[in-house]
Amino acid sequence: MMLFPRSSYMKISTSFSLLVALCVGAGLVSCNSAMQAYKKGVRHFEAGEYNPAIENFQKAATAGNIDAARLNYYTAESYRLSNRFADAAPFYQKAIDAGATDADARMHYAYALKTQGQYAEALQQLEKYVQSKPTNKTNLEKARREVETLRVVDALSRNKSNFQIKNMGNLNSPGAEFAPVVRGDELIFTASRKDKVYKNNGLPMLGLYKTKLGQTPDETGNAPQLFSSNVFLAEANEGTPAFSKDGKTMVFARGNTGKRKGGADVDLYISRQGTDGNWTQPQLLPVSDSLAWDGSPAFSADGRTLYFASNRAGGAGGIDLYRTNMDASGRFSRPVNMGRDINTPGDEIFPYVAEDGRLFFASDGHPGLGKLDVFVATRSQGVIRVENLGQPVNSPADDFGLMFVDKENGYFASNRQGGKGDDDIYFFGTSVAPETPTIAQGAPKVVRYFLAGTVQANETPAIPLDSARVRILDEAAGAPIAEVTTGQQGTFGKYPLQEGKDYTVLVERKGYLTRRVPFTMQGRSIPEIFLTKPETDTTFNVDVLLDRATLNRTFVLENIYYDLDKYNIRPDAAEELEKLVTILKDNPSLKIELSSHTDVRAPDAYNMRLSQNRAKAAVDYIVSRGIEADRMVAKGYGETQLVVKNAQTEEEHQRNRRTEFKILSY
């Protein structure tokens, strides 16, 4: 399916010497056959062709001579990465029982168990994963959140809406049907019905199809037909359409062609309906990121904002939701991440904006019953609340792609047990009384948030600093909400915070460089399901490290990179130089030397000129941001001040290619 990118794509380091050793004493013909099957499986796996990878791993397993831990783990990964968690679970268990050492095996196994409703077993595996202290910080944060969810999953399961659901049986097939959208009297949806088979999951490739709605929204009329011959690429996955308010502009996702090696290969495309009723040939939407997976678009009710999901760089982790505005000419603005109240270290996908402005989306990062649950986000007085839609819409399986036909009825997709195939489209409505009563919600619980911290000298060991002036600034208002001087222990706080707001902790002390530390309340609100008391106080602690303003002290600017043999300021370098701009603005008496250094892989004279040009370019950029030129001296040192002499590796050369600033006066 095109539902998910290969965000967890990995390379296999194959230990063929081990395989050869296992063949000693075994039948060489059968062992060679097993090795060949294993090697083919590896190649398919690395190409993202998980279905043929599974077939070859199964052939290799019949020989019984392959390392069980590795073989079962890669079989499990092949099922997981093609979104077949139920099939993955037993292979994760076999891999772990055989001593698999892969760091994330237990986390993936836990999610596979959760999709089967085996919550206690999933919690056990996740707790072991967290205790192992994995180095992947994003996965660790995600796992910790999931541990808290599984501990209160009984309370989540008691949350029931007054919807009834019905499988759209005459619409669904043994393949996949999802992403339903109503346009006029037609239901447009995504289905795996093309002739070519997608090697990722073994299903036919996805396309866009349409069917007439019946007299009631839980029925459809004639057999589904192809949506448009102009919006049809036989060897690609196409789906998840979104239509403008007038229904004449469509944005959809297309990809998985296999032509972009090593890339995400799913982008957003746009097509418009002409006066003849035909749709134009799709054009790539400029907001797409060629290095990312972009999909599941949705227009706002007024058609002026496009929402979509993407795993592009700079997000909260996994897949995030973004929005972009469309002007009267049909041009889109730069996409904006929707923030950490919505986005989590997990996946947020399939946005839908109702007429009343509520945002519905699917997520596996917010507290839910399954892998993907449907959530609704509302904003009130600047605070965003995210709520699980509850049963029966949500289940232990994937539930996603919800949309409303009217205020009480709509459609969504799910791969829950009891369906006709992979993903099925379901109708939901309130026209029939629910089988189980809605659980009455008690009085809302109150959480008060506070900020406290410590100011220390950035030394080893760190020394608490008294007499430091601390101001906590409300970024939106541009004014301090608190101002204090630290005592002997260097501590400050606690001061009340508001949900959803951004703050800055600004610290000044004589003899030290003034520093500001950003702090956001976005994504820090505690979901009500985790609250056990009517009132809860939570304090966040911030440690601020100040650098001594010592003459000739040198600081390295991290991540200042230049293109080969060039000295123009790249966007990523500009982002880092902005931090130096802030330091200079906060310390108006500071004068510095800004220096550039190269590695040794060019003639000395060339490196000296190049480094001087790079240092001057950095200074010119900072001057353009409002800093006086006489506060800075540009100096190129070429290769005369190497950090790593006799550098051999690219990492060592990179340490020599650095940009620094040195305090000249303060």
UniProtKB/TrEMBL annotation:
Q: Which residues form the signal peptide?
A: none
Q: What species was this sequence derived from?
A: Nibrella saemangeumensis
Name the source's superkingdom. Answer: Bacteria
Q: In this protein, which residues make up the domain named OmpA-like?
A: 549-666
Against InterPro entries, the record matches this protein to: 6-blade_b-propeller_TolB-like, Bact_OuterMem_StrucFunc, OMP_bac, OmpA-like, OmpA-like_sf, TPR-like_helical_dom_sf, TPR_rpt, WD40
Query: Mind listing the UniProt keywords for this protein, alphabetically?
Result: Cell outer membrane, Membrane, TPR repeat
List the PROSITE patterns hit by this protein, alphabetically.
OMPA_2, PROKAR_LIPOPROTEIN, TPR
Q: Which Pfam families match?
A: OmpA, PD40, TPR_19
Q: Which residues form a coiled coil?
A: none
TPR repeats, residue ranges: 103-136
Q: Its principal location?
A: membrane
| Localization annotation | Cell outer membrane
Q: What is this protein called?
A: OmpA family protein
